[in-house]
Amino acid sequence: MTTTKTRKLTPIPDALATVTIPEAVEALHELERRFDLIPVAARTDIADQLHRIITTGESLYLTGASQLVTEQRALLTALTSIANPTAFHNSTDSDQLHTSRNLLLTLALAATHVHGWNHKGLLERAVSMAQRTCRQRRPFTDDEVLLTRLMAIVTLRTDPKSPLPALYALVEAGMTPGETSQFRCNDLDDAEHPTHVVAAGNRIHEARFLPLDRFAAQILTSTVAKASQQGLKPHETALYRGKTNLPGTPAATASVQGVLNRFLKDLGLHLPDVSASGIRKWRLERVYNDQGAQTALVHAGYGPGTEDMDRLWLHLDLTTPLADTSTEPDDDEHFLD
């Protein structure tokens, strides 16, 4: 007879049960004031949904922020009136379910982070969802960006040596994964108050200056300061340090993709319809919607021609799946300790 081993879950801090759901919302607001975590276009909608979470929690007599995760399935049903939140649903219902799930986890993580508590038990207990859409490698949604931005900030505190926060910030700014491996300290226009970063380009994408929002600027300022403290010269790559393969190569790209995909898996976001490429696509879609096609082409590193516009549309609409890289990452240490 075979026995199945049960995975031992990380305990959720007992003190999290003493934090109320409104206090968890205030914790997120505190982090929002410091880092601008909530995408601008989504602020009104997310504010409304946070209010609904508070009132729904009260109606279910939930008293502690830990229940945002431990009672997540019941909360999802109460918030959406959908009995089986983990099944496939039409696009409207699916959006409601995924947005609610991600905001519930975001609030619990925010409350945990501001108190300096261990967050891993929350990730392990969050509801696992079915894929959100029928699309292939779609752009991220605003609620997913909020969750990943917050987790990048959490990682700065819990794992200061991790390259993940900077890799995420660069991809979200509009770099390809391969371009992030070429990031150097002097790629920021100002080491302390950067507004732009250099994207190195490659055989497909042109080199370009990418604007930085407040979130990315703070992450990258911290990254450059740490690299300087470790003795790295301004022209040396600050994140990828592969001994076998150079920055910008397929192996370097695969290494970055591996780091980002593991990050998304921890958050329950690495599903069949979305991968690390969706982070960059969110930015390109946002630029296209806010500033028009020509600005989006420049941001993506494409030229002004018709073929480039077709490439951008294909990239955002994802009418065909993008090719997977078959290159394996290096076996050596890629990133700075």
Give an overview in words.
This protein has 14 helices and two strands. It has helices at 21-35, 43-59, 67-70, 72-80, 91-114, 120-125, 142-158, 164-173, 177-180, 214-229, 250-266, 277-291, 293-300, 306-317; strands at 196-199, 208-211. The protein has a two-stranded antiparallel sheet with strand order 1-2. A hairpin with an 8-residue loop joins strand 1 (196-199) and strand 2 (208-211). Helix 1 (21-35) crosses helix 5.
Key phrases:
single chain; 337 residues; hpI Integrase, Chain A; 2 domains; two-stranded antiparallel sheet; 52% helix; globular
Q: Can you tell me the number of structural domains?
A: 2
Distance between the termini: 45 Å
Low-confidence stretches: 318-333
N-to-C SSE string, H for helix and E for strand? HHHHHHHHHEEHHHHH
Total helical elements: 14
Could you tell me the radius of gyration in angstroms? 20 Å
Q: State the secondary-structure class.
A: mainly alpha
Level-1 CATH class name of the largest domain: Mainly Alpha
Kindly report the name of the CATH homologous superfamily of the largest domain: Intergrase catalytic core
% residues in beta strands: under 5%
In the CATH scheme, what's the topology name of the largest domain?
hpI Integrase, Chain A
Overall average pLDDT: 90
The count of β-strands is 2
* Strand order, largest beta sheet: 1-2
Helix % is 40-55%
